[in-house]
## 1
Amino acid sequence: MSKSDKVVIPQAVADGAAAIVADKLNFTYNPKSPFSKQALKDVTLTVNRGEFVAIVGHTGSGKTTFVQHLNALIRVQNGGLFVLDYNLSAKKVDLKTLRGRVGMVFQYPEYQLFADTVLDDVCFGLKNFGVTDKEKREQLAQNALELVGMDFDKVKNKSPFDLSGGEKRRVALAGVLAMEPQILVMDEPTAGLDPRGKREILSLVSSINRHKGVTVVMVSHDMNEVYENADRIIVFREGEVAYDTTPRQLFKKEDEIISMNLEIPHMAKFCNELERQGYVIPDDCKTVEQVFDAVLALKGGVGNA
Amino acid sequence: MLKDVTFGQYYPADSFIHRMDARVKLLLCLLFMVGIFFVTSFAGFAFITVFLITLIASSRIPLRSILKSVKGIIVLLLLTVILNIFFTKTGTLLCKWWIFEIYDGGLYFAAKMFLRLTYLVVGSSVLTLTTTPVDLTHAIESLLKPLKVIKVPVHEIALIMSLTLSLIPGLIDETDRIIRAQKARGANFDTGGLVKRVKAFVPILIPLLVGGFRRAEELANAMNSRCYEGSNKRTQMRIMKLSWRDFVATFIALLFFVTVFVVYGMQSKWATADVGWLYINGVNWLYF
């Protein structure tokens, strides 16, 4: 563990531009046993502050292992990892403040609800992170519940087990958002929701990212949602970073994406086809409306300005 | 963290013992356990030691994994040894201090008890390390089949066992995930007094129970919707078949235990005779 003694702090971390810097991160499950499995191989990447980054990859590609490193649920075995101003390769890390600042939403977060009332459950994290003042806690909980679109007065005294699936997930999300994290890490936050529930969660995350400047790292299998929401996509393949680029650039490599068992988003397919037909679509056009306007502009027609 | 605990401690390898029929392994393991209680002398234990070493070597299981299961009963072992040393009052008195008296008979008896218990655990862990829990359940079902005659619901018992076994990895995964999720919300399970620590488990136990019921219900629905019925007409996906390995192993094991039974089962008759092999210096070493 002598690696923690002499660490060179990356420039991007030192001047506060980067939220996450991973440098040749390796991780092996059950080392030195017949079950041993290398989950991460020399993962090197940077996530800037305020960025919305999506992590995609086939099952078993190491993406979940990687994101669990970010709040030290999995400790660094080998390599460098900086999150905000924490050096996670060091022997001692102040886990309590780190975990308050890096909010982690797991797959099916509604399965972690346990308290008698919605309010108690949302306050659980706040209590653990040392918000001792009860009124302050309730205020933060109210803010978070309202942020996720719940009627605070209506649900605060309800049992979380009496809510519908989508509501449970939003309450669970509020339980993490209440801590006002600077980085929000989410593992498939929309899995198992209906299309409307998915849209609601995604627009919520997007707006937290845009309006509150929270850095978002989202693991997802749904290429369409990734394509529309993320600033950048990092593709994991067998524990390594295979691609690290913008959504438009990534999905131009159609054959390579398909060979990794990933799907091409509908809009990306459409844009690729348009470009083959000779239209030039700007890189930041991702939604139907944006592409529509871009095509109209090219045709010299009137966009709906 | 929890994933490090492999349930049922199965150790995957390809060996003679691994490939044996689970039923035969189970029966031979029982035979071994009975046999070891017949052995009463150090010569006999030496014999068993050689047998076990051969067994472990042929199963390709690292000694470390086997010692791990012995570690599980270390408290029981120590207690047995200590009690036997102080409470056996046969043979010659070796030393005396206050109310404690140690006789050489006690030392011998404690040592034998220690060996017997250790070997019991080693023998049975060879079974569980080389057989998957699922195979073991099938073996139990197959061996209990005769009880169907007296209306014991053998199939249902086996089904409950294998369903329980199959749910455990899922529950371990879920526990692991819940622990991580609550840790991410700042839960702390390692500090504080007893009450505080017990209280800290509430955020794990409640979601786990809720999840357990949910899984059980889903499974019951899935079985019902496929009209599951445990009747005699059900066939098995994996049919257990005896092979030459099982006959060879049974032959060796029987030979071994017949020897043990002959030597120790008729102890009373042979022990009184002051002649016999290994009769040296006035001590019959076979029974020492």
## 2
Amino acid sequence: MTVHEIRTRHCDSKRGDASDGAVLAEAVGGRLSRVDGPAKITGAAKYAVEQQLDGLSHAVLVESTIAAGRVRSIDTAAAESAPGVLLVLTPDNVLRLNTATDWLGTPPPDAPYYPLARDITFSGQHVAAVVAESFEQAVAAAALVKVSYDEMAAIVDLSDPKAGDGIPIDAMTKEWGDAQAAFASAPVRICAAYNTPREYQTPLEPHGLIAHWEGDQLTVWEPSQWLDGMARTYAEWFGVPFENVRLISPYIGGGFGSKAFAYGYSAVAAIAAKMLGRPVKLAVTRPQTFTAYGGRAATRQTVALGADAEGRIQSIVHRGVNETSVDGMWVEPLGSVTSIMYATPNFSSRQNVVRVNTVVPGALRAPGENPSAFGIESAIDELADEVGIDPLEIRLRNYAEQDPEVKKPWSTRQLREAYAAGAEAFGWSKRTPEPRSMRDGNQLIGWGVAAGTYPVRRAYGEAVVRILADGSVEVESSSIDMGQGTYTILAQTAAEVVGVPAENVVVKLGDSRYPRAGVTGGSRLAGVMTGAVYKAATAALDQLVGLAISDPNSPFHALQANTLVVTKGRIASPRGDGPEVSITELLGSVGRDHIEAMGDTMPANSTVEDRYKNYTTIATALSHTEGDYSRHSWCAHFIEVRVDEDFGTVRVSRVVSALDSGRLYNPKLAESQWRGGIIMGIGQALLEEGIVDRRHGRIVNNNLADYLIATNADIPDIEVISVGIPDPHSSVLGGKGVGELGIVGVAPAIANAVFHATGKRVRDLPITLEKLI
Amino acid sequence: MRDFSYLRANSIDAARQAAALPGAMLLAGGTTLIDLAKCGVTEPDTVVDITHLKGLDTVTVDDQGAMIGALARMSSVADDADIKSRFPAVSEALWQAASAQLRNMATIGGNLMQRTRCPYFRDPANFPACNKRSPGSGCSAIGGVTRGHAVLGTSEACIATYPGDLATALVAFDAIVHLGDRQIATDDFFLLPDATPDREHAIAPGEMITAIGIPASAAARRSTYLKVRDRQSYEFAAAGAAVGVEFEADGRTIKDLRVALGGVATKPWRARAVEEALKGKLLEPDTVRRASLLAIEGAVDHGANQYKIELAPRVVARAILKVGETA
């Protein structure tokens, strides 16, 4: 069984963090390079479906070609007799599973769950699966499965006349003052509709898994943002104890919210493995990544702003709609930024959800905040234009000094500092206010600004820290690294606390047998896990020092010291008197081969059940407004676009973003995540759109040649500036969320820049050339 | 992908004989064949590998013109110093096509044979109706998602866009396709869909592209390929134009002009009306813009592709003005 571990091989030693004085690269706050980088660039890193198992068989899915209706019959005869075929799964022979607890912790209904079903609610739904000795045989046989349908009319998208107004989601309603009346009497009013299309996570590594049963023990190699949550799902599906399921996911080739759950195809592979008594590999194809699970729901928002003649907001009236599936519920919280970005005495936000024939939508980098910011940050720009003041000035004029919704102080809000630092670095003061006033030949130049925010989500994690006799330190956690840098920052944390070089720390992640962790989503993992490792490492260090002081065989026994310090793996008295010995020497003299401590971020009185619930659902996650403060990350994007006046093509030519994520555990990696979010935001603004054939209810651009994400050629240099300060209310070590913040506000900053360049306000993403030509 | 037989040809004659068998297809770089086999669009019984044939990957350029072997890689032709200096539009069309990885694999002969990106053509499981794939079955694209579809050269049977960039430049400069001893002008090599969109090329079973010849011309030497698209790289053209110009001795009056459009038509589209309108005229912006409107004479949109009718003449005009400016 492969156990994954990462040893820190190389560090940029002595290179300090420029923003912070002289922090060593390997300490918390240092710019240590990704410790998993060499394994990835040399190909040594093995991803889930690259595992080699004896007797491995291959499953291929058959998908519905209609968007609504019922399977009349499935003819499997030809497929079953095709070469190499081991099993053809259909709704008629698929195992009956239990419905599992959902991620919110909702107790499941006492009803069976079948990952293959006859009722069809979207195009691309799994209808059957073929398992064969080879992948090619499975592909060939899957093409021989003949499915006939009774087709019904589908509701293809939000604009379908059959879609209706949808279901009001009362929990999304936020109201104070009298927003309608205040809007009606405001001297300046703007009201506009803002739309975002279906968007997809498009991770470089498509989804897939290898499932292997040994008796009633299930091992699953599957890319995962949440090992414990997914292990619980498999356990409940198959009615086996949680401990019987082992999920292994040392490397993840991008998730962006899409890899936190076990999906229908996961169940299909696990069922096939159980029925065949052999390991089964199921690799989701790129086209299937558009329907095997959901991307970001299409959204519609109406934002009405009432203001006085100086642009001070008196009322915000916001209405939002997002699509969900026929039989699943996804709420994309569209009022999440609307309600906190600006001070307003009157506010109303409501949201409906509309059922259409699609796979149930899911999380994509900053679900809720991302489309929400597109609405409010476009609208405030329209208000600035209406009133005739600078888009940056109007944001300062309406600055929220406290959380306008819950009326609590911000834990920290460095947004004013972000505006100032970004504007200075960008040269905003040189902007000419009139649209179409800046030009370079055929290129119209526009400068836009927008703000972004993301709440500090807090949850729980455990870690073991082990100090070994060879002087190395091991960290174990079932949390994961999908490229954001968990291996690296946990090595830095343990190294700093224990007092050893980071290259002596081995971090082991991505195995559900390790100490537990909640979901890696909502930008919470770094804050949670540095906290857990900090506590575990502190406890391990205390044990080490305790042994050194009290053990009769310790060289420090005669010193009668109260404490000792460990630096670069060597133990000494803080006063410098007495001996100095290595960890190896100490553990040898006291006869121990290791010291081990568990640490967690749970409340001290937590029960076993509490802990299970905390790691396998988000039911008990702490609200970002719990207690005395409202906790959020903040950012301001300043973006220059060049629009070809003949062709309507938009190119982003300059980005300066100033961001407040509190304390950065590793500025190099945080900057990289911010840039990644900004790059995704550029794609969202200009390129990304799932296009539905309205006759068939099917996404037709379901591949990476036709669903466009930004390429290197689309991305200019991106300057990011950290304006954060440690936030003790947000996490143990003072950090706030990083991963999702960067994308929030990019699309409206670009749309605002396009308006400044062209005088055209585009309120439907993406801003493609035909909208400007 | 279903099982198929694999043959490695060791002579051009052997390749042509094998390719004449029913269900046989030639394999060169494989960037189209493998892609379409994965989509279930092509299901060859026999794949005839011609990549080991000797002498088909050379590029020779002299005062008469260029001769490009069918197996020359897109990337090596794009980087060829003589192609760059004497046929800049050809080099520019190549390096703006596809990704670097694809350009390193794909061959020039295979590039001419690439198939449309029509999403309905590429998804037989979901869209059985496609006259290009199954003659007489209908066209799923008409009435569907048409943003990328053609506005020129369409028929009631098919509106699929010819996707390539290179062939646009070849058509502009009267390149010749060599099928062994038979030669055919590139403009005639590509067929309009009319009632038989399954027939895309004037090539018979058992014929094989062996080389592309491009006659030397002053217009080719002063040429460019302009490709416009939403994404800066790795996207098919919303509209493209291959343009070359030759001036009279005064350096201002247009003596010869070549214009071809890509990304907007069912085949690489020579815009002779634009050429004729500007020959003998001074190259001035207003004149060029007016004449460029002739590029889309007869264009018909299918809804979402209407913008191409606006865009294409602007791309043509910009390209003409660009080559006109460069001394």
